[in-house]
Specification:
alpha/beta
Length: 283
């Protein structure tokens, strides 16, 4: 029987004085085959002041045993049931002590300079948050890169612009200003939060030097469809034009269905080429 426990300290040493603390959060459930790659990418980070928090949703496949082997990387962690993606993220943010907060999700991994580059970008420009570009991989093979949208504010009032949420690092003042993620949104709490962030007057900046490695897999079409529906619902709740919002959502759902068929029935290389053409046409 799997033991469950609340947050407890890991073994990460304290950061050097005078260096802004960065809180990096991983949420995970049953990722024994990939969590070690995520942890190793955290271990290789060049930034010297990282608080690393891991929120495990009561994994039963050996993930907890892997976490125990990497306690030297972790500042605090837990393994206990939660109420979904947003609940797990909120647990991590509540534990965070850093001036800056970011995420790396199980199955994914970071370039060695991810945190260092993100902090430098925030300190250089005074933005409330920064985001970058995301490299997509499937079955260990690189597929394509999706670049963040520098002009995201021209589109965020009717759609989810390309902000590559996993690449995003936010100043603590953003969470203090708008609060945590809304658990009512099961698959798109990140973008619902970003809509609130924008309407609260916080401003972000795209920095192409920030990169993130995303592992594509699972029921991506089903997830993408549900996400498009939740994004539309969240935008309407924020006062966006329903006709424009739902029209765009329907187009996105159709494209997601085509993407899923391609991903299932053609090689990764062909899928990447066809998807690149489609993205050039549809945005």
């Amino acid at each position: 029987m799997q033991d469950h426990f609340g947050f407890r300290p890991g073994q990460r040493p304290p950061p050097p004085p005078g260096v802004p603390l960065y809180t990096l959060i991983t949420i995970v459930r049953n990722a024994v085959g990939s969590i070690e790659q995520t942890l190793r990418s955290v271990e290789r980070q060049t930034y010297p002041a990282i608080e690393y928090i891991v929120v495990d949703a009561a994994s039963t496949d050996g993930t907890v045993e892997v976490l125990r082997r990497y306690e030297h990387l972790i500042s605090a962690w837990c393994s206990e049931p939660d109420q979904g993606h947003a609940d797990g993220q909120n647990k991590g943010v509540r534990q965070a002590n850093g001036q800056f907060i970011g995420f790396v999700y199980a199955d994914d991994w970071l370039p060695d300079n991810f945190v260092e580059t993100s902090v430098a970008s925030l300190l250089r420009d005074g933005a409330d948050f920064v985001f970058g570009d995301m490299d997509y991989h499937m079955d260990g093979e690189f597929l394509f890169t999706i670049s963040g949208d520098p002009e995201y504010r021209t589109r965020i009032h009717y759609r989810a612009p390309v902000m590559n949420y996993p690449t995003l690092t936010a100043h603590r003042r953003v969470f203090d200003g708008v609060g945590l993620f809304n658990p009512a949104y099961r698959v798109a709490p990140d973008y619902e939060w970003l809509f609130r962030v924008d309407r609260a007057g916080f401003r972000g900046r795209h920095d192409p030097a920030i990169r993130y490695h995303f592992a594509l897999g699972g029921n991506s079409s089903q997830y993408a469809t549900r996400s498009a529906l939740e994004v539309a619902r969240a935008l309407c709740a924020q006062g966006a034009n329903p006709l424009r919002v739902w029209s765009y959502a329907c187009v996105r759902i159709a494209f997601h269905a085509v993407d899923e068929r391609l991903r299932r029935y053609v090689s990764p290389a062909v899928y990447a080429r066809v998807r690149a053409v489609r993205k050039a046409i549809s945005g």
